[in-house]
Amino acid sequence: MHNVDTSYESYTDHEEYIAANRPLIESIDLSKTRVVADLACCAGLFSNLLFARKPTLKICGIDLDQEQIDICSRKFSERGLLCPDMDTWRGNGTGQILLRKGSADDLPFMDGEIDLVVMGNAIHLMPDKDRFLLEVARVLRPGGTFVFNSVFFNGTFVPGTEALFSEWMKEAVLVLDEINNKRAQRGQPPVARERNKGGRAFAKGWLSEGEWREKVEKAGFANVQTGTRAKPITGTSLRLVAAYSGLASVLMSGYPLEIASVCLYEGAERAFNRLGIKEVPRLWLEVSAARP
Amino acid sequence: MNAEQDRPGIERKVIAVANETVADWDLDLPGGITRNTKLMEDLSFESIDIVQFAVGIERAFNRKGLPFERLFMKDGAYVDDITISEVTEFLCTELGASA
Predict the structure, then answer these.
(1) CB atoms B45 and A200 under 8 Å
(2) What's the CATH code, domain A9-155+201-233+282-290?
């Protein structure tokens, strides 16, 4: 059985993931942008790409997960870019990033304080999307921009590629069965599962591209641009994200995370091998909108 | 076509796999699992339950690689729920069973 890295960092630092996100960040007009909110900033990918384009930006990264904030803090601190507190950031945060643990639907900004709000691959997780969009609109200045992407939306699967994802999950269950068989040979009980830890199957709350457009417009945004971009998922990147404990807690809800991560990691490898493929495309939804 | 591979035979196997899946869940199911039972609404399936059920089906029919995505997704979106009858119909199509 593999020892797997269950952090999200190894996936978001992988060149494929960066390549999937870079075009969106490069498409943003930063000429009038000075103050940025990076919501659900995770390990800091968007902030990093933004700083690479415009080192004088003042960025505040927010994430619910303290582990992500710690990872992000370490990375930016090593480069001397970490701002210590909100007052310093507001006063003289140019070229720096302030990191805060918190919810993206209750932002620590004044009305109209932000020029650009970005959110990378997380908006599908927002429990109340309408409330969240209103909060983003509140903190943006008139003419400010909101940009987000997501690989979890209705339409993300390129027709004909869905089999990889269902085979991946079935292979993960077979790996779990093998683990249980070995435990049985040692006289141990099967891996225990606590039921009712995950949501109802298929109740993902994903929206389509058109539904996202409608929702963003309903929140009062103008010039809403939506589109999709196909990016490859290889065996390497699927294994990396498969091992992420946050995903394992959803896909194999109720099982111990370290075992679920191993099952999903090995299942990904087996699915690619069994189907005899090297990669499949998957569509990313990209949306930009302006506050009137 | 043997009796196990016609529609009633397939449905019996599907119900047997569903019963095996929920065996220790302590569900309140008056009348037990029938062709009209819904996997999510009636059996409270989570994502991993669906997958374990699918693997159980493949084992029961000795067929690996059944394209369950055709059952679970419609027009690029996941379906809301699935009945035992719909699973049976899917298998009849995939296994080439007679009605």
Answers:
(1) yes
(2) 3.40.50.150
Q: Which residues of A touch B40 (CB under 8 A)?
A: 200-203
Place of tokens 């020892």: A3
- Nearest C-alpha neighbor of A17 from the set A56, A43, A55, A51: A43
ipTM given for this complex: 0.93
Residue B99: band (very low, low, confident or very high) from pLDDT cuts 50, 70, 90 = low
A 239-278 near B (Cβ less than 8 A): 250-255, 274
> Which residues 58-77 of chain B have a CB within 8 Å of chain A?
58, 65, 67-69, 72-73, 76-77
Whether residue B16 is contained in a domain is answered as yes
**Three-class SS of A124-173:** HHCCCHHHHHHHHHHHEEEEEEEEEEECCCECCECCCCHHHHHHHHHHHH
Domain that holds residue B91: 3-23+36-95
Number of domains in chain B: 1
Task: Give the per-residue pLDDT at B4.
Answer: 59
